[in-house]
Design brief:
The structure holds two protein chains of two kinds. By secondary structure, chain A is of the alpha+beta class. Chain A is built from twelve helices and 20 strands. The radius of gyration of chain A is 21 Å and the shape is globular. Chain B has nine helices and seven strands. The chains are: A alpha+beta, B alpha/beta.
Chain lengths: ~425, ~250
């Protein structure tokens, strides 16, 4: 078993073992430190623990209880969102919150307090967790909920796996009438238009997100495609499953360069223009998980891997987003996809949760050595200045002082962190 | 619709087979040793769609209990039409070489207890003139090798027994499937690292098995390439084979 993160950077040698059941207590004395490893969809080093070991949750994949009347699911932490959807959708339920891939585990979704395109309406995944069991390094299994061990509960939500191993969790689902989405596509020319569309859409659309062409310069800077959607009200028959394509080998590193990325962005924009102002019906899968259709798409970035950079800044301040775009555009480092989304006012529950009111942008950067890190560090400084935050689940390079500014509850969190658990991310941002 | 009895039900492959059948709204009766694991598996299978998911706790290595077990099965599930054998253990070859008791125990757990149950079940299905039997043996049974010939000889015995049983029961319309998996990534083999390209996921092996049961196959290797690997291993002449350390 090769344990690596989704961005395949940093290149760390990681060893681990699989937990055999949710009742298993690992022999903590044998390891310097442990970290639960779900499906390896965190991009940077928050899912790695190269100085200790990872405990793989791939066999923790049992459902424990499904209350179909009230939409409550209890399952082991290694169950993926795909498995949850396959089970609950035929019964008229859906995930309350989902990130852009269905291959995350329930444990990972809690540990990163993941968000989705409906943040402005529903908040994070953590808002839907009712109860969980946590294996601490003293061997104890601790039940945590808003009423039982609440401090540990709020430390574990968004706690990056550092409070223990999540054994199982119980969470609320969302009632839906259909497996289809009604999606409206709108082209916009700049960030002002994006802001306007967001304001117009937030009350009547549960899901909003935009793709931005970050290679565009000057007048065209900030142009993009706005997608807003709701679950279809009318039940429709399920389409037959499509065969998935896997990226078989690493692309050579020269496959991704300024020109290919520019071309991709132009094509994507042109495609969006074609469907401008059109509403179409889309099956949930390509709508929520466009990249899941290509398994292991991370390999297009080649051997050296890539970094994803995702941050949020207070929403009044579009000037920061604008200057960040200018900086990236000027650097020519380019991003395949830049995803822009305005978060709502719902406060996150976890001590280290990332989402907060503001505008959120996510970008990919192929790893090109020192210059990539330098660029991201300078972006960090701009985010610090703006009073925003960078997302640990995507991060592989932020500096300790940035992390401490982004996450003011850090000292409080340390009280609940389990000493038997650590990660490369944690050691990097705290120096511990 | 299958009404299946699964021996050694908590093994990773058996669990994946059960999940496929659960989605098809099958009736399942799980047999195993660990009550807690069986109970949790039944809950999971019911959630996944099984119309019936029950379990019986039994230590299959105690042959004297088999008659009673079959009676308990009869009262727990109505006329089962599929019997799956996924029970067995992976003995330590070194320990077996040093202990006759260990060797006999390994042969009992991997061959004799299956043969005992198959004898009784075979008679029942022969009379009923319908049903299906699927038994997980192993590629290790195809040729004795220094690294695990005790396990291999038990699996080889099982394969020969199944050949004969298949021949006999074919006259009554009962299918007997012999399943020969290669390396599978399961909790039983979780300690073996790293795992190369030859290792298969239990999900994949389970899909192959379900397909083979449906199409009434006699013998399958899973994943498929093990047929060719074993063909080579079996064909190597002894004077060369003796020079290897397989």
């Amino acid at each position: 078993m090769i344990y690596q993160s989704w961005g395949r950077y940093p290149h760390l040698k990681q060893t681990g073992f699989a937990l055999k059941s949710r009742h298993q207590t690992p022999d903590f004395d044998d390891y310097e430190s442990l970290l639960a490893y779900g499906n390896g969809r965190s991009y940077g080093d928050s899912c790695l623990n190269s100085k200790g070991k990872v405990a793989h949750t791939r066999y923790l994949n049992k459902f424990i209880e499904f209350d179909q009347d009230n939409g409550l699911l209890t399952c082991e932490s290694g169950i993926t969102f795909k498995e949850v959807i396959d089970l609950v959708l035929p019964a008229g339920w859906f995930l309350p919150v989902t990130p852009g891939t269905k291959y995350v585990t329930v444990g990972g979704a809690i540990g990163n307090d993941v968000h989705g395109k409906n943040h402005h309406v529903d908040g994070n995944f953590g808002h839907f967790v009712e109860e969980l069991a946590l294996r601490r390094s003293n061997g104890e299994s601790m039940i945590c909920s808003p009423s039982q061990n609440p401090e540990m509960f709020y430390a574990t939500i968004g706690g990056l796996g550092l409070t223990g191993i999540i054994q199982w969790a119980k969470f609320r689902l969302k009632k839906v009438n259909s497996a289809f989405m009604e999606v409206e596509t709108i082209c916009f020319k700049g960030l002002d238009e994006f802001k306007l569309l967001t304001d117009q859409s937030k009350d009547s659309y549960v899901y909003t997100v935009a793709w931005v062409d970050c290679m565009a310069k000057g007048e065209e800077l900030g142009r993009g495609i706005f997608l807003r959607a709701n679950h279809s009200a009318e039940p429709k028959p399920l389409p037959s499953p499509k065969k998935q394509v896997t990226v078989p080998v690493n692309f050579p590193s020269f496959a991704l360069n300024t020109y290919s990325i520019k071309a991709f962005n132009m094509l994507y924009y042109a495609n969006g223009k074609r469907s401008h102002n059109k509403t179409s019906s889309s099956y949930y899968d390509p709508y929520f998980y466009p990249l899941d259709g290509i398994l292991e798409w991370n390999k297009i970035y080649g051997q050296q891997g890539f970094l994803q950079y995702q941050f949020v800044v207070p929403s009044t301040d579009y000037s920061v987003i604008k200057s960040i775009f200018e900086k990236i555009s000027a650097s020519g480092a380019g991003s395949f996809l830049a995803v822009l989304k305005e978060f709502g006012t719902i406060e996150s529950l976890g001590l280290l949760s990332f989402p907060r009111e503001g505008v959120c942008l996510a970008l990919d950067f192929p790893f090109n050595g020192e210059q990539t890190l330098k660029l991201l560090h300078s972006l960090d400084e701009m985010v610090v200045e703006a009073g925003g935050a960078v997302y640990p689940a995507k991060d592989a390079c932020m500096l300790p002082k940035s992390f401490q500014t982004f996450y003011p509850n850090l000292e409080e969190f340390k009280k609940y962190k389990d000493e038997g658990f650590s990660s490369d991310f944690w050691r990097r941002v705290t120096g511990e | 619709m299958y009404r299946a009895v699964i021996f050694g039900a908590t093994s990773a492959v058996a669990e994946q087979i059960c999940r496929i059948y659960a989605q098809d709204k099958a009736r399942l009766l799980l047999i195993g040793r660990r009550e807690e694991a069986l109970k949790e598996m039944c809950d999971d299978l019911s959630i996944r769609g099984a119309v019936q998911a029950d379990y019986l706790v039994s230590d299959l290595s105690d042959l004297s209990q088999h008659q009673t077990l079959l009676e308990r099965i009869q009262t727990s599930i109505n006329e089962p039409n599929l019997f799956i054998f996924a029970n067995g253990t992976l003995p330590d070859q070194q320990e077996c070489e040093e202990s006759v008791d260990k060797t006999i125990e390994a042969i009992n757990q991997n061959a004799l207890c299956q043969i005992s149950l198959l004898t009784m079940i075979g008679n029942t299905l022969e009379k009923r003139k319908t049903g299906s039997i699927a038994v997980i043996s192993s590629v290790a049974g195809d040729r004795g090798r220094m690294s695990n010939y005790v396990y291999g000889c038990a699996k080889g015995m099982l394969t020969r027994f199944l050949q004969g049983l298949r021949h006999r029961l074919s006259k009554s319309g009962v299918n007997v499937l012999d399943i020969k998996p290669g390396f599978i990534d399961t909790p039983m083999t979780a300690h073996i690292e790293p795992k190369g390209a030859l290792w298969a996921k239990p999900e994949k092996v389970a899909q192959d098995i379900v397909k083979a049961i449906d199409s009434k196959r006699s013998v399958i290797y899973t994943p498929w390439f093990w047929r060719w690997i074993m063909l080579i291993i079996v064909s190597v002449p002894d004077f060369i084979f003796k020079k290897t350390k397989l």
